[in-house]
Amino acid sequence: MSTLLYETKGMIARLTINRPEAMNAFDMETARLMADRLREFDRDPALRVAIITGAGDKAFCAGADLKKMHTNAGGINEFWEHERQERLGQRLQVEKPVIAAVNGYCLAGGLEFLLGCDVRIASTNASFGSPEVRWGILHGFGAMRLPHTVGMSVAMDLLLTGERIDARRAYEVGLVSRLVEPAALMTTAEQIAQKIAENGPLAVRVTKELAWRGLYEHPENMLRFYAAVTALIHGTEDSKEGPKAFSEKRSPQFKNR
Fold first, then answer.
1. pTM for the complete prediction?
2. Domain ranges for the chain
């Protein structure tokens, strides 16, 4: 069976990391499959939202499979430098929204992967951490993203101690936006995905781009970008359909154009 399961239903794609025997840690095959499937999702005009989770209830993703990487040609250095950065880091920057549904451990590269997702929800059995410093390696992408997400002090506590936090603490510091019982995790993720999918797809994609750019770009550059995309959006059929549906007291029928 594949180490990454991919299924679609209506406008929603679901990707499941399928290595429960290894706490859903990434090996090179799984990393490649994730990159390919995210690219496939992003290019499919029928799909609007993706949900990513891990098989079983013990782990969302425990990062890189260090044991397996050490037995392969190129070893851990090849994996970290090529697969994680080139494939996982970049390919998470898909245009469409991605929801992470965290069940169990979310550690190291798994936490970095989580930080690349747009909406993050967790079950009460989840726990989060960046233990890389304990083994003399770097939590690279996470070290850059985590302070923007939970604030510098909380981020440095996690990054420098290597300790884990539970799901309640993750919710309190804003690492995840919702906390649910394990049995309700996927139902909640699907409900959120459906709500997003029913919104104007062009507006959703541009809003995501605005939010991510806003983390890094100078305000003046952001205002110029916002003015340009606003002009483009106002010229679309969807931008006319939304207000028309509102005035006619009906649900809009967006055409993604």
1. 0.88
2. 4-197, 201-247
Residues in the chain: 257
List pLDDT tens digits, range 141-176: 888 889 999 999 999 999 999 999 999 999 999 999
Cα separation, 132 vs 103, whole angstroms:
21
Q: What is the per-residue pLDDT across 79-88, written as a single tens digit (0 to 9) for each?
A: 444 444 444 4
Per the residue annotation, which of 40, 132, 237, 248 is the catalytic one? 132
* CA-closest candidate to residue 242, choices 192, 194, 204, 191: 204
Distances (CA, A) of 171 to 26, 53, 94, 164, 257: 25, 18, 25, 13, 36
Distance CA 64, CA 210 (A): 31
Name the active-site residue from 7, 21, 112, 248: 112
CATH of domain 4-197: 3.90.226.10
